[in-house]
């Protein structure tokens, strides 16, 4: 499964997956359990959203990011509702869609034939794949991704009514190449292998309550490095590139700053299999000197063996 909402390709950096939750942490935890599992992410919008510009008849358009509220006065809550209401119309008939567009009400006239084709351009959920970063044994909460989920249709974080994370099984890898970011292909079924809910979609990731017995790569929690403790030199990342097994791969931290650091992948096996960093690796834990240093957040598009990391101590704050 790939992101419905694709990452924004920045001139230099690609924001990796896909991409919230949990009650706010009152203070930085002293230790966390590093994870590294690939996860499927489901954010329920609670409404029907248009994903792409689509003409619905007679020169009338629905725009990406529109929310469909009702059809001929009948409230719409999901894709199936649109299909059912459209099926009740007579052939050649038109209907009025009440839409919220950029916070304002809009009425769009649509033809029955176009309404029947509309399900390909609407959805009730934002989905994607990322990497589970940590479990906090003190609070029973998790953190993932290391960055906010942004929905391409909205060009921003989606409003959501709830969500969940699920264990993802990596079936295939498309390698990264200079200028062409790679990605993971995985299978995730909603309602199976549930790991936790989603309560926050904040600047530094998604957060929520952990409800699974899934174990991390370490038997015990690791101490959290303060940002100023992270130094240039060897480190390793925990991430999943095949099935559900976490792998450990070598990197070298090349520069540090108070709020971020940069690294280069040095592990030849990882480079051979993935080309470096992939979409879907964001959130992968970074371990240095036996401590939890940070998580992967970005890759350099033109140099996919290079990436950027966020200190995990900063991540637990959720916001700068």
UniProtKB/TrEMBL annotation:
Key words, A-Z = Hydrolase, Signal
Question: Is Lipid metabolism given among the entry's keywords?
Answer: no
User: Which PROSITE patterns is this protein grouped with?
Assistant: SPOIVB
SUPFAM superfamilies associated with the record: PDZ domain-like
Q: What is its EC number?
A: 3.4.21.116
Q: Name all Peptidase S55 domain ranges.
A: 99-320
InterPro entries (alphabetical): PDZ_sf, Peptidase_S55
Q: Which residues form the signal peptide?
A: 1-23
User: Has the keyword Signal been applied to this entry?
Assistant: yes
Q: Which GO terms describe its molecular function?
A: hydrolase activity
- Name the record gives this protein: Stage IV sporulation protein B
- The organism's taxonomic lineage, starting at the top: Bacteria, Bacillati, Bacillota, Bacilli, Bacillales
């Amino acid at each position: 499964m790939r992101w419905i909402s694709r990452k924004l390709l920045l001139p230099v950096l690609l924001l990796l997956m896909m991409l919230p939750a949990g009650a706010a942490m009152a203070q930085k935890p002293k230790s966390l359990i590093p994870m590294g599992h690939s996860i499927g992410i489901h954010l329920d919008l609670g409404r029907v959203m248009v994903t792409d510009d689509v003409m619905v008849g007679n020169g009338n358009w629905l725009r990406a990011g529109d929310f469909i509220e009702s059809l001929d006065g009948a409230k719409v809550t999901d894709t199936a509702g649109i299909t059912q209401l459209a099926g009740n119309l007579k052939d050649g008939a038109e209907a009025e869609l009440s839409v919220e567009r950029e916070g304002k009400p809009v009425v769009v006239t649509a033809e029955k034939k176009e309404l029947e084709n509309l399900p390909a351009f609407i959805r009730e959920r934002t989905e994607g794949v990322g990497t589970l970063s940590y479990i906090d044994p003190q609070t029973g909460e998790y953190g993932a991704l290391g960055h906010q989920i942004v929905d391409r249709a909205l060009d921003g974080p989606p409003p959501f009514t709830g969500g969940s994370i699920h264990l993802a099984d990596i079936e295939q890898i498309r390698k990264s190449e200079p200028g062409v970011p790679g990605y993971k292909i995985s299978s995730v079924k909603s309602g199976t292998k549930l790991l936790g809910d989603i309560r926050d979609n904040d600047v530094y990731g998604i957060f929520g309550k952990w409800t699974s017995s899934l174990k991390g790569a370490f038997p015990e929690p690791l101490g959290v490095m303060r940002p100023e403790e992270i130094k240039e030199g060897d480190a390793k990342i925990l991430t999943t590139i095949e099935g559900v097994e976490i792998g450990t791969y070598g990197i070298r931290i090349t520069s540090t700053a108070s709020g971020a650091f940069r690294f280069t992948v040095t592990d030849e096996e990882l480079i051979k299999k993935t080309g470096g960093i992939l979409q879907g690796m964001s959130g992968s834990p970074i371990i240095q000197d036996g401590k939890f240093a940070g998580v992967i957040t970005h890759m350099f598009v033109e140099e996919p063996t290079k990436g950027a990391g966020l200190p995990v101590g900063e991540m637990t704050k959720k916001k700068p």
